[in-house]
Amino acid sequence: MKLSKSVFCLLGIILSFALINAAYGKVLWMDSFDDNNIDAKYEFKDHPGEWVEEDGVLKQTNPAPGDHTYCLINGEFPEPHSVIVKIRIDDWEDDDLSRTGFGVRLDPSDGAGFAFLIHQTLNNVEFLNDHLAWKNNDTVPPFGALEVGKWYWMKAEISDNGFMGKIWSEDENEPANWLLESALDFGAVRPASGIVGLNGGSNAGTGKTLVSFDNFAVCENASECVPELLTTSVEPKSKLTATWGELKR
Predict the structure, then answer these.
(1) For residues 205 and 198, what is the distance between their CA atoms, to the nearest angstrom?
(2) Less Cβ around it within 10 Å: N or C end of the chain?
(3) CATH 3.40.50.1010 fits 26-248, yes or no
């Protein structure tokens, strides 16, 4: 029996969606910022800052946006989940309020949560429970100080068992082990909110933080959240973002 062309087309579409779900079934959110248009699903808390999407990246361009400024996505992401993003310091001046990175378990009202940050100097990363307590696990990145204008990957995982993070240069392989690991024992334990966000700075008249982000993803587990996920072209790679949530559900 001969099958019509329309049947073959339908089978092809079904197979394509099956392959997408097989390859990306554990991706909860993904944005490579390639269309120069900030996704309408993002919200800006606690201070709005000055965010712009251009040249294929998301930038926070106010050097002193206030403590703190978050671009967050409320995806109701179940825990545990992992976050990965590529980050570039565009300008920096050392200060306690000079900080950038990303946060998890963010409060929908003000964006406060557990944060994995580059803090105070470009040779220090640590954990913060926003407005409550530092973990005081100040750590020099494995490559030394970050360089202005250079890209780095930051990655973290959050669950009731704790908070873990690592950072590495774009031109290096991902380290096998976490750089920072901590129980959720600094400040009050925040409830799981399913909200993650990019921290664009906290300066308020002192110091300076100008930062760009690229290739941002949230995954169910750390093994899925890898640079290859975001740097291997599949379709126009960026703007499957509007459909990732629907495909996942």
Answers:
(1) 21
(2) N
(3) no
